[in-house]
Amino acid sequence: MTENVHFSGRAPLLQQLENGLTRHERGRHNHRVGLHGMGGIRKTPTALQYVYSLRDSGFYRPIYWLRAKDQASLLANYQRIASAASFPIQGQDLVQMEVSVLGWLREQDEWLLVLDDLDNIQLLPASAPNADLVNT
Questions:
Q1: Is residue 3 part of a domain?
Q2: Interval 59-118: pLDDT, tens
Q3: Using CA atoms, how far apart are residues 8 and 49, in angstroms rounded to an integer?
Q4: What CATH number has the domain bearing residue 41?
Q5: DSSP string, 46-85
Q6: Residue from 114, 120, 124, 133 nearest 47 by CA
Q7: Does some domain include residue 1?
Q8: Reduced to 3 states, what is the DSSP secondary structure of residue 33?
């Protein structure tokens, strides 16, 4: 995806995203924020602007953008992460691979994972914590 150089007008929402993703609270799953709202209200461009605003800051290394429209696309993206990170997944079925990749990510520092088009929350693994929701 490319940066929208004409993006404007969402500064308070971008600040909410930053606050939610950089907050540290004991006993909470930190760094998980979900944008939700009706289709067409520019959730994806807002998330993309957040990513681009921090791209060169070094705050997140790396940034993973996953399409989560259905289980097949989500699992294919987890497989792409494993390949890019040279993470061994040979011999694993798709569910094992997903668990392995998410476990590996938990051990890493300074990464950002964006799940785009996640219309069905049931696609998230059972181990995924709840996110703080931000109305768009």
A1: no
A2: 778 888 888 888 888 888 888 888 888 877 778 887 788 888 888 888 887 788 888 888
A3: 9
A4: 3.40.50.300
A5: HHHHHHHHHTTTTSSSSEEEEE-SSHHHHHHHHHHHHHHT
A6: 114
A7: no
A8: strand
